[in-house]
From TrEMBL:
One of its GO terms (cellular component) is extracellular region. This is Purple acid phosphatase. Signal peptide: none annotated. Fe cation 2 binds at residues 109, 147, 241, 276. Its EC number is 3.1.3.2. It is found in: Secreted. Gene3D superfamilies: 3.60.21.10. The keyword ATP-binding does not apply. It is an enzyme of class 3 (hydrolase). Binds 2 iron ions per subunit. SUPFAM superfamilies: Metallo-dependent phosphatases. The lineage of its organism: Eukaryota, Viridiplantae, Streptophyta, Embryophyta, Tracheophyta.
Length: 357
């Protein structure tokens, strides 16, 4: 009898444990990853987006920063917003070597024009593995999907087999990355945009895993809101492909402004980092500390059209190729934007006091 009672107690304990795990999972829902910081307590990150063109449109040059230095006059012409000029860096791989990035963020549109055809598509090697060859770029890449990625076999980019081909690749729809100095929330923005569903023109999108759409979007927003509220990190950074605020070709993504922006503002998010517009851009928020940072200059750029924007909010608009770097400690964040030859176009920093929450 005692033995049977013990078995029942063990069974009950297992049921409670399983239920507890289910409750924890249902609260967080989004997959979580951990990434260590440097021994000195800092974190360094490279951010690049809209790149996958088999090396064309200067993708290789952005990766290597190896083009000859162009004239300062030419650089000034492609900056559409007046900014301060800072001393140039030295040639994404060489600068990466100088800053020793802990990881790299890709803001989506990883493979043009129509994503991958499958896990054996040579575009994976031709646009990724064979391009980002510098030692400083052999770090973990954390990637989101862009609208062009949804035009192919969207599940291919999410397939663990690609990690067997190249261990630095990691792409999920939405996930959370924890570090000791900041927390990063990666979100899948493409399914928010109405025109991809109702006005796709000649483009075909792979919506496997997304339908029913409204349920998918509601769950994503709910889990993001929960995770942000549970976060105790001093820096909360959200990464998505589509623009929230932009003076570039795509401009404001209305669906994100209506549904995502209130979640970010309510939860005191510090930075929203995106691609989609093929430019480098920094817009400040007039009514909150939230900053909008676009790093979509990984290959094809030079769209040539800039929307009017308040100069008090538009800190940088560079209609060209390049990338962004982020350096964080528990109390400080430091942002720099680089052009294709490694010159610093713009830099911004913010500090939070020792007792900030």
């Amino acid at each position: 009898m005692a033995s049977k009672n013990l078995q029942n107690i063990i069974l009950l304990y297992k049921i409670i444990l399983i239920c507890g795990l289910c409750l924890v999972y249902s609260k967080t829902e989004l997959p979580r990853f951990e990434h260590p910081i440097k021994p000195d307590g800092s974190l360094s990150i490279l951010v690049v987006g809209d790149w996958g063109r088999r090396g064309a449109y200067n993708q290789t040059e952005v990766a290597a920063q190896s083009l000859p230095l162009v004239s300062k006059g030419f650089v000034a012409q492609v900056i559409r917003h007046p900014i301060a000029s800072f001393p140039g860096g030295d040639k994404m791989a060489k600068i990466g070597g100088q800053m020793d990035p802990d990881f790299i963020i890709s803001t989506g549109d990883n493979f043009y024009e129509d994503g991958l055809t499958g896990i054996e598509d040579p575009a994976f090697e031709e646009s990724f593995s064979n391009i980002y060859l510098g030692p400083s770029l052999q770090k973990q890449w954390y990637s989101v999907l862009g609208n062009h990625d949804y035009r192919g076999d969207v599940l291919a980019q999410l397939d663990p087999i690609l990690r067997q081909k190249d261990s630095k690749w990691l792409c999920l729809r939405s996930f959370i990355l924890n570090t000791d100095v900041a927390e990063f929330f990666f979100i899948d923005t493409t399914p928010f945009v109405d025109k991809y569903f109702f006005r796709p023109e000649d483009d075909k999108y792979d919506w496997r895993g997304v339908l029913p759409r409204e349920e998918y979007l509601s769950n994503q927003l709910k889990h993001l809101d929960t995770a942000l509220k549970e976060s105790s990190s001093n820096w909360k950074i959200v990464v998505g492909h589509h623009t929230l605020k932009s003076a570039g070709d795509h401009g404001i993504t209305v669906e994100l402004e209506e549904r995502l922006l209130p979640v970010l503002q309510e939860n005191n998010v510090d930075l929203y980092v995106n691609g989609h517009d093929h430019c480098l851009e920094h817009i400040s928020s007039p009514d909150s500390p939230l900053q909008f940072l676009t790093s979509g200059g990984g290959s094809k750029a030079w769209r040539g059209n800039v929307r009017p924007w308040s100069p008090e909010e538009l800190k940088l608009y560079y209609d060209g190729q390049g990338f962004m770097t982020m350096k964080l400690t528990k109390y400080d964040v430091y942002i720099q934007f680089y052009d294709i030859v490694g010159d610093i176009l713009h830099q911004w920093s913010r500090s939070k006091g020792f007792y900030s929450t």
